[in-house]
Amino acid sequence: xxxxxxxxxxxxxxxxxxxxxxxxxxxxxxxxxxxxxxxxxxxxxxxxxxxxxxxxxxxxxxxxxxxxxxxxxxxxxxxxxxxxxxxxxxxxxxxxxxxxxxxxxxxxxxxxxxxxxxxxxxxxxxxxxxxxxxxxxxxxxxxxxxxxxxxxxxxxxxxxxxxxxxxxxxxxxxxxxxxxxxxxxxxxxxxxxxxxxxxxxxxxxxxxxxxxxxxxxxxxxxxxxxxxxxxxxxxxxxxxxxxxxxxxxxxxxxxxxxxxxxxxxxxxxxxxxxxxxxxxxxxxxxxxx
Length: 289
Known about the structure:
With 289 residues, this protein is of the alpha+beta class. The protein is built from seven helices and nine strands; from the N terminus they run H-E-E-E-E-E-E-E-E-H-H-H-H-E-H-H. The protein has helices at residues 2-19, 94-101, 105-124, 129-134, 137-154, 171-243, 245-260, and strands spanning 20-23, 27-33, 36-40, 45-48, 54-60, 64-67, 71-74, 80-91, 157-168. Strands 6, 7, 8 and 9 form a four-stranded antiparallel beta sheet that branches. A three-stranded antiparallel beta sheet has the order 3-2-5, with no helix packed on it. A two-stranded antiparallel sheet has the order 1-4. A hairpin with a 2-residue loop joins strand 2 (27-33) and strand 3. Helix 3 (105-124) packs across helix 5 and helix 6 packs across helix 7. The radius of gyration is 54 Å and the shape is rod-shaped. The model has no long low-confidence stretch (mean pLDDT 78).
């Protein structure tokens, strides 16, 4: 009796296992009835089916990554570029996906890879090598994705994004590209140096002009001050001469003595009783001889 109960329990478990299935929220599900599609996109949770009549195929509904092996593409200059790129995609219409690929993700990826390679080949042929290297990557990727959207829709998938992982040049192209880039950088450097020298000459000329103007203004101001000083000195001398003519004459003679008798061997060829020595030996105020 116990054996019969155990057998019944095992058979019941098998029947229940064959009659139920679960759907995860990360899955897209197709329910088949005798090989034909009966239901699509069932809600997450526990579901029932008829054993041997119904079967279930599950597919990942998350965004998947398609890694495409590096390939060579020709630019408009017939230069080879090695491009390593990838794509992000997900199943959108699970029924169309099953009909076009028999539910095989590998088939879908192979067809997507070929579509993207054709798009990359067409887009790279529109640009020069310098444009491709310098900054047209996003434009190229956007155009490739746009071109592949309709074809991807026929597979029941959505192409989320296309990105270049790495881009390089073959050895035979790299040297010529680097040489051209080096020449371009040298040309830019020479242009900067020429503009720097030109600006330096302008600054130097402006500084020389300002220096000349400053010196001229300073000379004019110094001459003006000197003239004013001489005028005040003359005025002072005249006022002093008017107040005491004899003292003024004596003072001027002292200045003349100091200016002429500066050396140790000063020699004068002059009469001793000349007017130049009139204050030698005579007190101030004494009558002149």
